[in-house]
Amino acid sequence: MKRGHLTGRWLAAALAAAVFSAASLSGCAGEEKGADTGNGASGEKEITVAVNSETGTLDPAGSIALTYLSYSVTALDELLTYDENGEIEYRAAESYEVNEDSTVWTFHLREDALWSDGTPVTAEDFLNTIRRALDPASGSGYAVYLFPIENAEEIYDQEASMDTLGVDTPDDHTLVFRLEEPCVYFLDLLRLPVYTPSCAKYADSVDSGWDKDPETSLANGPFMLAEYVPDQYFVLEKNESYWNQDAVRLDRIIYRFFDDTQAMAAAYETGEVDVAVSLPSSVMELYEGRDDLLVTEQIATRYIYFNLDVEPFDDVRVREAFNLAIDREELCRILGEDTEPTYNLVAKYMIDKNTGMRFVDEAEQPFGENAERARELLAEAGYPDGEGFPEITYSYPTLEMDSDTAQVIREQLKKNLNIDIELKAQELQANYSSRHAGDFDLCRMNWTADFADPYTYLSMLLSNSTYNCSGIHDEEYDAIVEASGSEQDPAARSVLLHQAEQRAVGEQFYIIPLYAMKSVNLVNPEITGLRQIPASGALEYRYADIG
Q1: Which of 188, 216, 266, 389 is placed for a possible disulfide with 19 were both Cys, Cβ 3.0 to 4.6 Å?
Q2: Cβ partners under 8 Å of residue 99, min gap 6
């Protein structure tokens, strides 16, 4: 790997401190990469990927965050997924059939699918994840996506026993789902963690430590866990038992954790990592015209949750005032070229599979900014010129973009509403925990699509959603979203989805949408075979090669 370094002593000076920080963040920092070609000492091919700091578990039935998403995309095979052309790509399953009313889905597993220890992957392994995720003690935010299955919601609510679950395993290689009613997006759900397998022999609970122990954390995908060093890195090695191993070119992928995006960029510049993702917008200018720079559209929305159980956010006039008082154009000018204002919950860059257009462009914008009207609403709610407004706190992760966002929002709310808010920066995992515990007034939220359908966003605001951290209970909204799930006509379903978003974002103002993002990535030009996951926009390395 031979890279042309950026010109200018000023750049070297700017990165010097970040390089030192990068070295201190990882136990791998002092190791040399083999011959600058991505080859290890034995001639094996490997790449090192810089990712944001460690969060969550590697258990698909547990608390899912960035670390799991990095791991699972190369270590776990879902039943099937969609490729970049919208065609089905079979993975753990080799075929499926569905009955006439789309309530019984039968999947036939590959008989040559093996765990990384050489034992067969069975239908029971898929059921193992589902059962464990339906135990609230597992802390799975994705359990709600199992609720289309017969009795799954009742089991989660401890109103029915597990033996009533609508999942059957008639033999080791057949998995049958019986749904409560037709679910037109069911195949999209299969890429979610709760539908992926966990080896029933070892995967017993989310707190036993099996998921980060290479001896028990078995993989059914192209790579398997070889080493895990908390807060530093984890290593995936090629799974020689994988059914499609002939298509796998890399021998090893190393993921290194960084708390700071500048340190990630510095580690790339010095050749310590081959890929650095989600970097600051300044990198776009620094690397302009170079093959290293890869800018992609994230199917994601950055927004803020209100806590409706906290006064005065139980008043829709206050929620609307906050939305109308924020100048998103100014916010994005300050943050950088990788952001773009949004007024929707559904990701700005999500494509409607039925029309080929961006979903948000198919309907009117839910609301527009208007500082004068925001002040009127606040006065109507009993807080003229901000007088008497209670002390509130905005909680957000200690990431550079979120810190900058928080400062701008505080200044705009002070300028436009004469309101002071306290800022509370938290480590990423602490921010997740506070949000899920409902321990916040205002809380930063970022959602990257799990599957290519607006339901992945709108479902989070359902009264029964495990991701509804705001205390939203809106029967009218619930009814609209639930109706969209069984509506077979694409045009009619689109109307329902837009109607749901309008109610949530343009009438009840349950969230404060802020901006959409482009992902600024640096990739060693010698890496080939990278793919972009259509549902999320994230990079996929399972069939990558180098040098």
Answers
A1: 266
A2: none
Other Cβ atoms within 10 Å of 537 Cβ, number: 20
Give the separation between CA 66 and CA 153, rounded to whole angstroms. Answer: 26
Residue 217 carries which side chain, given as an amino acid letter?
Answer: S
Residue 310 identity (one-letter amino acid): V
- Beta strand segments in 405-546, E: 421-426, 442-448, 511-523, 527-528, 531-532, 539-540, 545-546
β-strand partners of 422: 393
pLDDT over threshold 90, residue 485 = no
Q: Which residues contact 52 (CB under 8 A, 6 or more apart)?
A: 66, 257, 258, 259, 261, 278, 399, 428
Query: Is there a contact between 179 and 103 (Cβ–Cβ < 8 Å)?
Result: yes
- pLDDT for 456: 93
Q: How far apart are CA 64 and CA 409, in angstroms?
A: 28
| H or E element that contains 476 | helix 475-486
Residue 93: alpha-carbon gap to chain centroid:
24
Torsion of CA 176, 465, 194, 529, to 10 degrees: 110
Asked whether 263 and 29 are in contact (CB, 8 A), the reply is no
Nearest to 195 by CA among 161, 146, 148: 146
- Pairing, β 527-528 against β 511-523: unpaired
Q: Which of 68-72, 462-466, 521-525 has the highest mean pLDDT?
A: 521-525
Contact (Cβ atoms closer than 8 angstroms) between residue 452 and residue 353: yes
Residue 461 DSSP one-character state: G
Q: How far apart are the first and last CA of the chain?
A: 7
Question: Of 257, 300, 285, 277, which Cα lies nearest the Cα of 444?
Answer: 300
Cα separation, 57 vs 68, whole angstroms = 6
**Residue 536's pLDDT band (cuts 50, 70, 90):** confident
pLDDT given for residue 150 in this prediction: 98
The pLDDT tens digits of the residues spanning 311-370 come to: 999 999 999 999 999 999 999 999 999 999 999 999 999 999 888 899 999 999 999 999
Distance of CA 52 to the CA centre of its chain: 13
Residue 100 host element (H or E) = none
pTM value > 0.85: no
CA 538 from centre of chain? 9
Q: In percent, how much of the chain has pLDDT > 70?
A: 92
d(CA 527, CA 260): 24
Round the average pLDDT of the chain to a whole number and report it: 90
* CA separation for the pair 401, 404 (Å, rounded): 5
Q: Is 340 helix (H, G, I), strand (E, B) or coil?
A: strand
